[in-house]
Design goal:
Elements lengths: L3 E2 L14 E8 L6 E9 L2 E9 L2 H12 L1 H4 L4 E9 L8 E8 L13 E7 L2 H17 L7 H4 L31
Antiparallel strand pairs: 1-7, 2-3, 3-4, 5-6, 6-7
Helix pairs in contact: 1-3
Length: 182
């Protein structure tokens, strides 16, 4: 499965920012609080975060906020989050639209603006976290945020290989035939 960032490029086809979601994971179920963790890279830096939330998407968004807290000097404000089916059926693609605003404690030019991103995929959770990270990347690509990632960088040796973004190996289907054997 591949999650496609639909509106994540500037004019001319260049990526909106150097931030990329390397991997994510979440655990959720009934009668338990969801937990999410993320690894995000940008330039020579790598940030990791984990958090709890009211569901898998909330837990992952909070994990992203935790990972990038030092970069943004706070948590971005989620302005809107919309999910739409692009087609019907079990393999239908979902379209996730996310809009964020700068952290409430931001001052001056850094305190204004709204930043949108769209991602599509058959996995709504993957598309959601990809769109959220890309919306934040768009915020950080603004001139008045330049240098924020380096200032809060941790030089944890971001990988230099062009690895896929938060994908899984669709070539190997999991064997679920034994899940119900007791």
């Amino acid at each position: 499965m591949t999650t496609e960032i639909v509106a994540a490029q500037e004019p001319g086809g260049a990526p909106a920012s150097g931030l990329r979601l390397v991997r994510w994971s979440c655990a959720s179920g009934s009668n338990v609080q969801s937990r999410g963790s993320v690894v995000i890279e940008g330039g020579d830096h790598r940030w990791e975060g984990s958090s709890k939330g009211t569901g898998p998407v909330d837990a992952l968004f909070r994990a992203v906020d935790s990972a990038l807290h030092e970069v943004l000097t706070g948590h971005p404000r989620l302005v809107s989050y919309d999910v739409h089916a692009v087609a019907e059926g079990p393999d239908a693609t979902g379209r996730v639209e996310v809009s964020v605003a700068p952290p409430g404690g931001a001052a001056g030019e850094r305190a204004s603006g709204s930043y949108q991103a769209v991602a599509e995929g058959v996995n709504i959770i993957a598309a959601s976290v990809e769109a959220y990270v890309e919306a934040i990347a768009r915020l950080l690509s603004e001139e008045h945020w330049q240098g924020a990632t380096d200032a809060a960088g941790n030089d944890r040796a971001a990988r230099r290989d062009p690895a896929p973004r938060a994908d899984f190996d669709s070539e190997v289907a999991p064997d679920t035939s034994r899940w119900w054997d007791s």
